[in-house]
């Protein structure tokens, strides 16, 4: 007898997640290494205390105040403005994308992305019984736009997931890529949505525009963001999207009632009031990333171009030995991506110095 009687396609599967090990230098989950200031902590605590007084009531199901604050924040990245009715939030951008697949995927429909990419995408598809179609990236992890558009026209997916910058490679997409794929996905009926996952959007290099600018041009475009990375609030669990209001309305059909707790809404609003401080370290992290790329190349390693707060490097004959060697030095990186590559998140200058020292030592000993 099979117990528990789990869905057949889930039987024996391991839950997704990076190892949570207690080591001195944790550079494995693309977190922001800088915590909030005491002023921000105090503001969050006061806001949560206020929310606690009303916990006998359900929270605002439509989280309007929070959506308005997020719309204001997003408006910095587009000359066209963002309205509150264009914004939707949930518990992390993972939940936002799962809700998108619940509303727009499902049996008889498909979702498509280009590997190597974020390994949760096929899981959203699996969990919503959506067929998963995987295209591929070029050797430098960019997209061949003609081939990508042809694949979309061939499979007619309901949802195309396009991370920019991509995880685990760090590669950002040029605006033409978004345009070409939005047009390809609008060429069949019912048309597909193109979800540009900008979880790492704030870390992009100067001159790379956000896909938010293209929202007025493509009704089938969705841009997702998160407070987990640039906002230094991974523990808050707050992700959000901007899209046509009709797309937000469709998600409202599938979301659980009151999915965002009063505590989450209060804490997120307070964190947003401290946006300049929380985002203040993004420039430092970008500079540290560029220094890390240069240093890794100086060691003779291959390094993917990065517009994110992490860097993919390799290629090692035995990447697990390198990963283990780094761990033995108290440095945790991520064993992810194409065979032979490792991904390091950008930490403080001290953490990156520890990483460099450890890697230099490991490379001297591992052949
Ligand atoms: N998209 C990408 C590309 C990611 O790497 C991550 C987190 N690692 C997420 C989305 C989800 O982030 P969160 O749920 O914390 O918003």
UniProtKB/TrEMBL annotation:
Catalytic activity: L-histidinol phosphate + 2-oxoglutarate = 3-(imidazol-4-yl)-2-oxopropyl phosphate + L-glutamate
Coiled-coil annotated spans: none
Keyword Transferase (UniProt): yes
PROSITE patterns: AA_TRANSFER_CLASS_2
Pathway it works in: Amino-acid biosynthesis; L-histidine biosynthesis; L-histidine from 5-phospho-alpha-D-ribose 1-diphosphate: step 7/9
Keyword terms: Amino-acid biosynthesis, Aminotransferase, Histidine biosynthesis, Pyridoxal phosphate, Transferase
Cofactor(s) required for function per UniProt: pyridoxal 5'-phosphate
PANTHER family: HISTIDINOL-PHOSPHATE AMINOTRANSFERASE, HISTIDINOL-PHOSPHATE AMINOTRANSFERASE-RELATED
Similarity field: Belongs to the class-II pyridoxal-phosphate-dependent aminotransferase family. Histidinol-phosphate aminotransferase subfamily.
Subunit structure: Homodimer.
HAMAP family membership: HisC_aminotrans_2
Protein name, entry field: Histidinol-phosphate aminotransferase
The organism of origin for this protein: Nocardioides abyssi
Higher taxonomy: Bacteria, Bacillati, Actinomycetota, Actinomycetes, Propionibacteriales
